């Protein structure tokens, strides 16, 4: 009996040990995931972490709150370590409007590749069902959280204006307010002066010029006093206008009697544009646009594909081509301007 008793005790001990090991492995796995998320947030500006949570979201993420705007729904989620992320969906079910998410991802991905101060964004396909996703049969975007506050709130940069404004003929703004005066379009002298106030700003302005984003108003620009850094959000206005062409006109009429701070800002703006044009030829941006569209359910055989989407894709590709050609001319004009400023000094 003693042998059987000892055998039973050994077996029970083994089972308890086995169970304990399994529990330890589960806990270690959770700790590893949390550490991975935190480390990635610190060293990769939150980009790779998005790829992790695309697979882990339902397991470790919880809904925090929702915000309903006129055109979109924003859902805030957080992980077990308290890190926050954002899920965004377009309210209008029209596929042509849903396609704005593709432009957001495209603009943000270009920024990510050059480590520009823009939040990181990933597509959630209509087939993926996530915690907090409101419209389950539509695409969404998963975004890193922008720290700090918007620049229309109380901060040392409240009201800073780096928006390159443009009203496209026939658009809602154009029909309501008419065309903008020439001196208020695109890269104005005021925008150039404003972007000289912080080292992050010329890089954000250069990105907006390159991708034709005229929606960099204060609500889409965050400032974090703790890290003394800016972060831009919402790139859905990408590649629907040629801001580089307008910037060429501004540069043509710039006085070479510029302050050192403005010259440094223009140099940073110029260097960023050069990097963008060298890193993203037309063929690469076309391929990214097509890939993101396919993943978001806008492929030619997908349910959300329609004639309006086909027209929109063609339109954006034409604008990509125009923007890149204008950016090349703008870079040449900036080279001449900066050379003249150097000679004058």
Description:
With 345 residues, the chain is an alpha+beta fold. It folds into 2 domains: 143 residues, Phosphorylase Kinase, domain 1 (2-Layer Sandwich), CATH 3.30.200; 196 residues, Phosphatidylinositol 3-kinase Catalytic Subunit, Chain A, Domain 5. The protein contains 11 helices and 8 strands. The strands form 2 sheets. It has a 5-stranded antiparallel β-sheet with strand order 1-2-3-5-4, sandwiched between helices. Strands 6-7-8 form a 3-stranded antiparallel β-sheet, with no helix packed on it. Strand 7 and strand 8 form a beta hairpin. The chain is globular, with a radius of gyration of 25 Å.
Output the keywords:
single chain; Phosphatidylinositol 3-kinase Catalytic Subunit, Chain A, Domain 5; 2 domains; Phosphorylase Kinase, domain 1; 345 residues; alpha+beta; disordered N terminus; three-stranded antiparallel sheet
